[in-house]
Amino acid sequence: MNTKVLTTLEYVKIREMLADKCQTPIGREEAENLLPMDVVFDVERAQEETSAALSRLFRYGSLSCSGARDIRESLLRLNVGANLGIVELLNIGALLQTASRVKTFGAKREDHEADDVLDTYFSALDPVNDLRKEIERCILSEEEIADDASPTLKSIRRKMQSAAAKIRSELNSLLVSQGSYLRDNVITQRNGRYCIPVKSEFRAQVPGMIHDESGSGSTVFIEPMSVVRLNNEIRQLEIDEEKEIEAILATLSAKAADHTGALEADLKTLSHLDFVFAKASLARDMKATRPVFNLNHALDLKQARHPLLQKDRVVPVDIRLGSDFYHLIITGPNTGGKTVSLKTAGLLQLMGQAGLHIPAAEASGLGIFTEIYADIGDEQSIEQNLSTFSSHMKNIVRILDKADGDSFVLLDELCSGTDPQEGAALAIAILNFLLRMQVRTMATTHYSELKLFALSTDGVENASCEFDLATLSPTYRLLIGIPGKSNAFAISRRLGLPGFIIDEAGGQIDESAERFEDVIRSLDASRRKLERDKSMVGQLKSEAKRMKEDLEKQESGLEEQRQKILAKARKEAADILQSAKEQVDETIRALNKSGNDVRELEQVRQKTREMLNENRGPEAPKAVRKGNTSPDALRVGDSVMVLTMNLKGTVSTLPDAKGNLYVQMGILRSLVHVSDVEKLEEETVKVNGKKVSGGYGTFSKASSISSEINLIGKTVDEALPELDKYLDDAYLAHLPSARIVHGKGSGILRNAVQNHLKKLSYVKEFHLGEFGEGDAGVTIAVFK
Questions:
Q1: How would you classify the pairing of strands 139-141 and 144-145?
Q2: DSSP class per residue in 497-510
Q3: Which of 4, 208, 321, 674 has the largest CB neighbor count within 10 A?
């Protein structure tokens, strides 16, 4: 693909947008060097990767590869046996940590989840856990090696601390005994050795080595003779420490050298995944779709949008080329959208062949071209003494020399800038030459001769950018099959040019040209009428469909309601019959048993009457029951009955000025009026001879307890009492586990929470949250 067209069609700006979404240096390089491909397998493979990444992006969120450092130079050093520094080893550790995280991100989360083309990349990642853990254990930061990196280093640092403590003890004694000779009672360091500040006039009274002097000369910094030996010991220990650190780094470098192959593969895989997910992120931002490729060099773009124009202003266009016709000649007024349509087709073709999704509707089609040529814009060159026409013609000559049946050619204002008659003749000849080679071509022009050429030539089609004469503004819609008009007379008349001048100008136009313009005007009017009729038919069709669906829903609902009523009636009738049968049987047994006892017979008759009254049902609606509880009599935690809902609950808040209060009913918390509430007497039961509460409030609370508590922002003293109460409630509610959110921070709150959990007998175990649960910012406590 020639590089000139990448700039002409602004493809380089798309690459810049893509590169800005990459998180890794190598991924960014891959984006900046991305070129369109002309092998179908390669294009489809790249498109498949973008689609798979976009699907994962919508399901699981963005992929983070920010820890994948560029370790290519470190790998080269390892291959020649060199030792790495602390920063280089930390970069390797960060790369492996990123590989572990990305591998987890790519793992299947559901059994029925389908495979995709990215599974190979995720499964190929090797976190090399033993090397990663060893680096994390030995190196704490870019400036600090852990004491436990080796037993020797730990011993050396312990001796250094002991020697420093002895020095401070000795110097503190001198501060007390010789305080009158000192400028300040402080211990300082000069050249890495412990000293005390002595007044210059008393330097002879303090034996030792002078290491420095103040700017004024009034103070000297002396290393007392009593600590010289200890300072020398510390200096020797510092040298030993440096040697041991070098030995530790050499050991880590040797371990890393054993895994250079895995490290190089991880770096390459992570960078490519970063690049692929950057393509997916760009597609999401553009609301782009995967194009359908064909081998016929045909374009079928539906609702295509230029990706560099503002989303709220760009007008989608439909572009077809290559199936029914080879050439598309676009005419119309200036600033009407002809060049934008040209650039949209070319840019989307480049994006598609580069493996990027395109901003167009689903099922938009693209071909596969080996070359795309474009002559767009004013390329007048003063330095080369070239006019606009000459500059364009130079480009066209180059295009005609190289174009073939596998090429896509875009020509803007073909052969303009010269005599119209000669320019039109040249344009027709150039288009005929390209047509004979079956080169897919889009061209814009103002020449009327090209409109006639498209109408009379097989394989060539007219198109125009719609213009609204009512508003004197373009609509930017591309209309294929209809030639465009310049509309110069109509625009001039609307802008106030005198009518006699316009009439005189009209008389200068050839009669055949005028008839041709009239035909175009008539076609445009017919098209607009057909579009209005089509739109009206579509609206009526949609309305009829909606009304039909509504009627079907109503009929379905009525039938369902009817069946429910019948089923309920049948059940009630069966229940009444069963109850009546049982009552008759019982009555017969009672009569047989009672003999002639009048009192027992009366009791049987009364019981039968009551049953009949029950089955007769209510004759009139009953009055709504209202509570008689005074607002002052309610307290938070009181057990109440919500009358309209016939549910028991617990008072959460006291009544406000309007008498409204919140009541917790199991997991339901509702706002009710005090008149709808009736206070319940608290039930009590005896346990070991003592009365205790019935426990309704406890069950209500237990049923609403959350499985998570958030302690972020609280101090240890504030958090632990709240945590203790929450854990008691959660345990009584029979929750299997509790999620404690304490944040990462400095780790003080996390340590306090975990130490507290160790003391609780009903906590079986606890652990930090895993990936997706909050990581180190969350502790999961499991109850016994």
A1: antiparallel
A2: --HHHHHHHHHTS-
A3: 321
d(CA 249, CA 85): 7
Comparing 204-213, 509-518, 719-728, the range with the smallest average pLDDT is 509-518
Residues 6+ apart with CB under 8 A from 134: 252, 255
Measured distance CA(423)–CA(657) in Å, rounded: 87
* Whole-number Å distance between alpha carbons of 444 and 484: 10
Over residues 224-238, mean pLDDT: 85
Query: Which residues, in sequence order, are CB contacts of 157 under 8 Å at separation 6+?
Result: 147, 241
The percentage of the chain sitting over the pLDDT mark of 70, rounded to a whole number, equals 84
Prediction pTM value: 0.62
Instruction: Determine contact, residues 702/733, Cβ cutoff 8 Å.
Output: yes
Tokens 């600590």 identify what position?
227
Find which of 378-382, 396-400, 497-501 is predicted with most confidence, using mean pLDDT.
396-400
Angle at 368 between CA 362 and CA 374, to 5 degrees: 100
Please check the confidence at residue 535 and state whether its pLDDT lies above 60.
Answer: yes
Q: Any idea which residue has 């300072």 for tokens?
A: 231
Integer Cα distance of 102 and 122 in angstroms: 7
pLDDT over 80 (residue 32)? yes
Distance between CA 159 and CA 746 in Å, rounded? 29
Q: Is the pLDDT of residue 479 over 50?
A: yes
Question: What distance in Å separates the CA atoms of residue 784 and residue 782, rounded to the nearest whole number?
Answer: 7
What is the mean predicted confidence (pLDDT) over 87-114? 90
How far apart CA 168 and CA 227 sit, in angstroms, is 9
Please name which of 355, 343, 291 lies closest in space to residue 314, comparing C-alpha atoms: 343
Q: Which residues contact 299 (CB under 8 A, 6 or more apart)?
A: 319, 320, 321, 322, 345, 349, 365, 366, 367, 440
User: What mean pLDDT is predicted for residues 235-252?
Assistant: 93
Q: For residues 535 and 546, what is the distance between their CA atoms, to the nearest angstrom?
A: 16
3-state helix, strand, coil in the chain (%, to 5): 50, 15, 30
> Which of 24, 6, 45 has its CA nearest to residue 278?
24
- End-to-end CA distance of the chain: give it in Å, rounded: 68
Q: For helices 716-732 and 748-758, give the axis angle rounded to 10 degrees.
A: 40
Dihedral of CA 198/202/206/207: which sign? positive
State the average pLDDT over residues 101-121.
88
Question: Is residue 525's pLDDT more than 50?
Answer: yes
219 SS3 class: strand
Among 364, 403, 450, CA closest to 5: 403
Strands 668-673 and 144-145: unpaired
- The span from the CA of 253 to the CA of 77, in Å, is 10
Distance CA 279, CA 142 (A): 34
* Residue 363: pLDDT band with limits 50, 70, 90: very high
Say if strands 647-651 and 639-642 run parallel, antiparallel, or are unpaired.
antiparallel
Tokens of 75: 């790998």
